[in-house]
């Protein structure tokens, strides 16, 4: 099947239809249909010398060996692949490029079986976009005051800021590569649900667009979040944004003296030099992952010092002086016996 022959299956489509991003077009049902075919691993290689399944598709997109190993661990690797493709290589994440890669892998069966689903989705998407055009005649349905046209970009930076009309604060800011969203989703399930019920700041979920990325991240890390969790992986080390967040977090907590920075290792990699003196949560130790999640949760809510356990300063002073006092009395007792 030539690279352009598959287009004959979609005779009703216009040329620009193939440029639509599949993240906007494809329904869950269509993705599931595609997963039924692509999730099954094949021991045979295609005529192009590639695995004719989700692994080969991931290679064509540009993912590394370690990325593909992470996809393999998911219950629906094709679905995770599509989401990560859209976030990491958004420009190529089009429905036309998806079909072109399937054809290159020799998976005409996938395109044929998904054809009706894709066409249905495309028609629905075009109907919706025609009924709700992006360009609207007015700026907003709300009244805008002149002084509202100039705002401080660090005042309103999260979805909750907009919903509540006041600054929102979080237990921890999660610093991660977009390729590691699969682990961040696990973290949300583990830490935001009972019994921990923590409040995490996830950039892709909580931060509204429009402001300087570095300025917003710095504001959240320094003023809005008690802790910073760094999800350490090969992808993390390649990310310039993660590098900025990590170095900024370390600058306000050098040597982790305030214990704000908590590394969470999710794969074997070259450990950053600035983290070597900081105790980490190692999620590569699969046998003790339950313990690791529990340690991470307690590290997030742990007080910065013991003074938060009591509001009585005299009581805390007595606690701190108790051990030296016992030693002094003991020495005096020994001298009197002599």
Automatic annotation (TrEMBL):
Q: Does the keyword Cytoplasm apply?
A: yes
* TIR domain segment(s): 168-300
* Domain (Death): residue spans on this chain: 53-118
Q: What is this protein called?
A: Myeloid differentiation factor 88
Q: Please indicate which superkingdom the organism of origin belongs to.
A: Eukaryota
Q: Where in the cell is it found?
A: Cytoplasm
Q: Which PROSITE patterns match?
A: DEATH_DOMAIN, TIR
| Record field: transmembrane | none
Could you tell me the keywords of this UniProt record? Answer: Cytoplasm, Immunity, Inflammatory response, Innate immunity
Coarsely, its chief localization is cytoplasm
Say yes or no: keyword Cytoplasm present: yes
> What are its GO cellular component terms?
cytoplasm; plasma membrane
A single GO BP term for this record reads: defense response to Gram-positive bacterium
């Amino acid at each position: 099947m030539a690279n352009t022959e598959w287009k004959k299956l979609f005779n009703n489509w216009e040329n620009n239809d193939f440029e639509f991003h599949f993240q906007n077009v494809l329904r869950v049902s269509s993705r599931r249909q595609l997963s039924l075919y692509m999730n099954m691993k094949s021991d045979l290689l295609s005529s192009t010398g590639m695995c004719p399944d989700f692994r080969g598709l991931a290679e064509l997109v540009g993912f590394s060996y370690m990325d593909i190993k992470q996809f393999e661990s998911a219950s629906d690797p094709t679905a995770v692949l599509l989401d990560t493709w859209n976030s990491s290589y958004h420009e190529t994440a089009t429905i036309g490029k998806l079909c072109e890669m399937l054809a290159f892998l020799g998976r005409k069966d996938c395109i044929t079986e998904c054809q009706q689903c894709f066409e249905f989705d495309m028609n629905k998407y075009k109907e919706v976009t025609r009924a709700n055009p992006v360009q609207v005649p007015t700026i907003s349905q709300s009244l805008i005051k002149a002084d509202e046209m100039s705002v401080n970009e660090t005042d309103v930076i999260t979805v909750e800021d907009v919903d509540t009309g006041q600054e929102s604060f979080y237990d921890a800011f999660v610093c991660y590569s977009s390729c590691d969203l699969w682990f961040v989703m696990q973290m949300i399930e583990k830490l935001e649900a009972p019994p921990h019920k923590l409040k995490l700041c996830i950039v892709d979920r909580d931060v509204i667009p429009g402001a300087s990325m570095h300025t917003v991240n710095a504001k959240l890390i320094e003023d809005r979040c008690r802790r910073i969790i760094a999800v350490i992986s090969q992808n993390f080390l390649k990310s310039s944004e993660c590098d900025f967040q990590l170095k900024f977090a370390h600058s306000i907590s050098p040597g982790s003296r305030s214990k704000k920075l908590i590394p969470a290792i999710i794969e074997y990699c070259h450990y950053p030099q600035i983290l070597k003196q900081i105790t980490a949560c190692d999620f590569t130790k699969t046998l003790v992952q339950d313990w690791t999640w529990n340690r991470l949760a307690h590290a997030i809510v742990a007080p910065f010092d013991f003074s938060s356990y009591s509001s009585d300063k005299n009581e805390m002073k007595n606690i701190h002086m108790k051990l030296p006092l016992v030693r002094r009395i003991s020495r005096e007792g020994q001298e009197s016996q002599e």
